[in-house]
Structure formats: C-alpha cells, structure tokens
Amino acid sequence: MSEHIAIYDTQDGVRLISIDRPAKKNALTGAMYDAMRGALEQADASDAVGAVVFAGLPGAFSAGNDLADFVEGSRRPFAEAPALRFIRQLARTKTPMVAAVDGIAVGIGTTLTLHCDLVYASPAARFRMPFVELGLVPEAASSYLLPRRVGLLKATELLLLSQAFDADEALRLGLVNAIAPSDLLLDHALAQAGRLAALPPGAVAATRRLIRGDQAEVEAALEAEAEAFEARLRAPEAQAAFARFLGKAKAT
Predict the structure, then answer these.
(1) Which residues constitute the domain of residue 146?
(2) pTM for this one?
C-alpha cells in the first residue's frame, strides 16, 4: 500500500480511490500504482463493491508519473514496472469505473479516464498527454482508444503534438460526461457511481462488455504500446528529456 493512496468503501457499494500527494501534484510512484492496482483487483473480487471512483486533490487529479521514481525504476525490465501492471489491471477491470477530474490531468492522469465508464470534470480540469515530448509513446491503449473516441486527426493532435485541452473541449469531444463545479464534483461522481452500483450486476457487466467491444484488441494495443514504450525508454531522446525535466525540478 501507499501513504498517498486513500481507499474508502461507502455504504452504497462504491470504492473511492483517492490520490493524495499534494506536494507533488499527485505525481504517481510505483508504490501508488501498486496500491491502486490492488484496490481494483479487490473490487473485482468483492460482491460488495459495485463501482469504483478515481479522484484527486482540488486542482490536481494527477501530474502523471513521478519522473524521478520512474527513472529509478526504469533500470529494471519494463514488464515488471508497477505502472504497466496497473495499466493492465485498469484495462481488464470488470467493476464499473468513474473519474472525477479537477485540475491538471497529465499523462496517465488523462489516459486513465479512457478506461472509465463515466468521467466528470470541473471547469478547472486541464488534460495533456506529453509522451512524445518526453521521447516516449502513448500508453494505456490510448493510441487505440483515443482515435475511436475523437477521430484520427484530433487524436493525432492530442498525442503527437501533446496538445492540452480544457474541460469544455473534453466535453465537446465526448471525453467527459459533464462538467460540475469543483466543490460539487466528487459528490456528483460518487452519486453516479452509486447509481451504477445499485443496478443488477449481471446486466451491468453484460452491457459493459457490449459497449466496450473487443477486449482482446484493447489489450493487444496496450501490449504493443508497452513494447514500444520500453524501447523508447532506453533511447537517448527519452534519457535527455528526463535529464532536462529533472534538472528543472531541482532548480526550482
């Protein structure tokens, strides 16, 4: 478990996974990924949990990977990386998932939402996927899922140019269900998750499978990305980008 991931189960059958690392704007470490993966695995194994909600801090859903932690972990095979283990679990989780996004959602902070059944954002939400800028490639099957949501040209702009977009644009593109005020966002997401948890679970599971389509294609895309990600991770481009980023972080 991680001290920066809080997990609560409500009386309505909802599991809240709350990211709580304010000093780093909810940047994710290996221990945090492991804690979230475990929470999802346990949700799937529990008849008492009917939905999961991901939430962050006011102003910071997640700044993405903690690069210092990620670089340290990259000395091991990427197949063993907590981030990849979490992403694999995210893609195959059977329990309905809801995201409440307030503030920055960078990298996995954005791609995580592509696997959620419902996504709500505050007016302050800011999404960005800067993988190419870091010398990397997209992850979490985003190169497969995003074009199917927003079209090939827009997905290219968001992934290749690392184009940032706000809550209004996310709503227009169909990447969020609704925008709610920051102070009401989490309550709204929990209420919607409670509605999901109250529905007949067998019907929810069957409908979810029909909506999502071919699970094998999603997982195949995820694994292809992981292979390319590992190759790019070892390349000079990524190493130079990490060094620049970490140098700036030390200077501030």
Answers:
(1) 5-181+200-251
(2) 0.94
